[in-house]
Amino acid sequence: MSSLTEPHRIDPGHQADLAGRPSREDGGLAKSDATKQLRKLIKRLDALQELMYAESKHSLLVVFQAMDAGGKDSTIRNVLGPLNPQGVRVASFKQPSTLERAHDFLWRIHQQCPGGGHIGIFNRSHYEDVLVVRVKNLVEPAIWKRRFEHINAFEKLLTDEGTVIVKFFLHISRKYQRKRLQRRLDRPDKHWKFDPSDLAERAHWDAYQQAFEEALTRCSTPWAPWYVVPAERRWYRNLIVAKVLVDTLESLKMQYPEPKIDPATIQID
Ligand code: ATP
Ligand code: MG
Known about the structure:
With about 270 residues, the chain is of the alpha/beta class. The protein contains eleven helices and five strands, in the order H-E-H-E-H-H-E-H-H-H-E-H-H-H-E-H. Strands 2-3-1-4-5 form a five-stranded parallel beta sheet, sandwiched between helices.
């Protein structure tokens, strides 16, 4: 992994230390250089996805979590939007339906996991079941407490079966969230995005940070690491996410499959 992204990874067994991590950062880069780098990384990512499809051994699962207005949608649009849509699928997890609620918390998640050759993007995820569920007391503490182990085992299963997992927490400050929510009130084209319930969630800011702290600490594993991405400079956020994804896919050392034909013997008239 590169020196650019490594500081943002939570080393397994270490405290996430969200309070000690920056939410605004430029990594010593100028915006114009970072934007150029990002364009190249996105092209590379597109090529790597095609290679992954050709080889069909692996899939990639990308998890995004953040506080409201943390930039999940915009990161997905900017970094993964330019890829071949046939190779990418986004799953957004909202409040569970009655049917989903009647099953274990991973039931709906497993169905959305990417198959061989594909990139699956989770806009929210199974982590909601140790975040909002914990903060809002939606189940007994004894139940959410044992979910960390279930999550690690589930992610290990996916990894053993060929899915590579990376998880991003888009880190913003409370002050920055205020600014982004205010923007939704100030701009008529953003009014539709304003959800009064976001204010109720914001009131639980500290409880959410505490829940994220524990989830990221306990579930950053060698097979499915968490990255805390400083998300207040959007160009830096996009760069880090793209770089982690490219480095992750490159580390797989994928190969095009052996051709079933000998191209030298074929003549097209
Ligand atoms: P937007 O950026 O458009 O607001 P969003 O991801 O916030 O996107 P919403 O429909 O506003 O989408 O919110 C989804 C809500 O569903 C969130 O408040 C989230 O915490 C909640 N949710 C997701 N998964 C669960 C779960 N397992 N249990 C309870 N609530 C959940
Ligand atoms: Mg919302």
